[in-house]
Amino acid sequence: MARASRRLPALIALATLALGAPALADGVDVGKPSSVRNLVPAAAIEQQAAKEYGQLKAQAAKQRALGSDDHPQVKRLRAIAARIIPFVDRFNPRAGRWQWEVNLIGSKQINAFCMPGGKIAFFSGILDQLKLTDDEVAMVMGHEIAHALREHARERMAKSQITRFGATLLGELLGGGGYTSALQIGGNLLSLKFSRDDESEADLVGLDLAARAGFDPRAGVSLWQKMMAANNNAPLEFLSTHPAGNQRISEIEKQLPQVMPLYRAALAGRADASRNTRGLGR
């Protein structure tokens, strides 16, 4: 997969050139991330995420379930990511330097994730069973990337450690000790559960990212309609920690006035870039 990882930055660079400068519209404002996350060093959690992601890829490859570089769905996912990633700095200045990866795991699970440091994986079930359009894939991807950008895993781990060590940890922090050796990054990032507030924030940031990349944010509504229909057939693990579908759709609809201008500006920018490219070819 190293070859694929080398190609992704090139795709991102091409997408940035095609899209031009980010849209001038303001988009969403979710404020600053929680300062509690600073109890856990970003580098440590990103290193652990890279380790776990590597183990997942190795296991999938052993089971012949890791999508190859020339798999149509892998190419599709990486092309969508290449359009979204140029806009991540808005929500996390460090994210532009992450070693982003996008992979496909052959599984009937309806799920996807983005680990700290930009490690993205989609399970084939979410693409095959829900028949997602590119816009809907972008809604899922934007949501999962948002978790990584807002460092929800880092925040959840920090809060867990505060609960575990309580006054001792806070006393050391307030006393100038900063990060304590008591804080350990465990090998459980893949099973980490986010709060409903985290999920709602990720929805909002994901809509913004996808819209800036030229994906229709109204696809968030059709995505969750599909999720709800699939959940009626068999309860989805993906929905177990997420706000209810109807609530999700209502919140997305409320945010559309904020993100639709971003989408329209992105479409206009892509159309201008296309015309300029055709003009250069004459």
The biggest beta sheet, please? 3 strands, mixed
**Number of distinct beta strands:** 3
> Which structural class is indicated by helix and strand composition?
mainly alpha
Helix content: 55-70%
The residue ranges in which pLDDT falls below 50 over 5 or more consecutive positions are 11-25, 174-187
Oligomer: single chain
Q: Over the alpha carbons, how many angstroms does the gyration radius reach?
A: 19 Å
Described by the principal axes of the CA atoms, the overall outline is: globular
Question: What proportion of the residues form beta strands (DSSP E)?
Answer: under 5%
Mean pLDDT: 80
Put simply, the count of helices is: 10
Biggest sheet: strand arrangement: 1-3-2
Structural notes for this entry:
The protein is mostly helical. The protein is 61% helix and 5% strand. The protein contains ten helices and three strands, in the order αααβββααααααα. The chain has helices spanning 2-19, 42-62, 72-84, 124-128, 134-149, 152-177, 196-212, 219-233, 237-240, 245-280, and strands at 101-105, 112-115, 119-123. It has a three-stranded mixed β-sheet with strand order 1-3-2, sandwiched between helices. Strand 2 and strand 3 form a beta hairpin. Helix 1 (2-19) crosses helix 3 (72-84). The radius of gyration is 19 Å and the shape is globular. Residues 11-25 and 174-187 have low confidence and may be disordered.
List keywords for this structure.
single chain; about 280 residues; mainly alpha; three-stranded mixed beta sheet; 3 strands
SSE blueprint and pairings:
Elements: H1 2-19, H2 42-62, H3 72-84, E1 101-105, E2 112-115, E3 119-123, H4 124-128, H5 134-149, H6 152-177, H7 196-212, H8 219-233, H9 237-240, H10 245-280
Parallel strand pairs: 1-3
Antiparallel strand pairs: 2-3
Helix pairs in contact: 1-3, 3-5, 5-7, 5-8, 7-10, 8-10
